[in-house]
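User: Please predict the structure of the protein below. I'd like the answer in structure-token form so I can feed it into my own downstream comparison script.

Assistant: Understood. Taking the following sequence of 168 residues as input:
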Amino acid sequence: MRLSADRINRKSPYWVIQLDELTFRFVTKNGILYRVGFYQDRFFLGSRAYHFFIANDSEASAPKDGDVFRVITCVLEEFFRQDASVMLYICDPHDHREAIRDSLYKRWFNGYTHKRRLTLETAEINFDNYIVYTGMILRNDHPEYDELLTAYREFVQRASSLYQIQPK
């Protein structure tokens, strides 16, 4: 899979630079440097899915900036332009803001103009009072739609018994 910075830049409010086939970098009007992209899943669905990430590579905390949200939308639209794209996310718990991150994914999805083409399946996995927020987004016309939803739901049901996670 290769995403196109040219297509993203046609709509993006910030200029994105392509770092590799699936990763982009951009700088906001406030000088905040972001890296966004995908890496292939190795455990859950193998080559059929990609994890999405957003990283603030600046030392400074990021002020609210609606244009960041619009850049993310452009990147995700480019990703879902691919026929068999499946996006997974796990909300990073390092700073105890994972619930906020989960709500941002849901807000993006619910506010997305073309959401009727996609399905968002979310879950909260409880590891002995430690919650991991996760989700899967896939196109409604995906050739393995039913199988992927079933696999995700089964994985979520088994996850707390498969992995030992220690809160930080």
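That's the full token string. DSSP finds four helices and seven strands in the chain.
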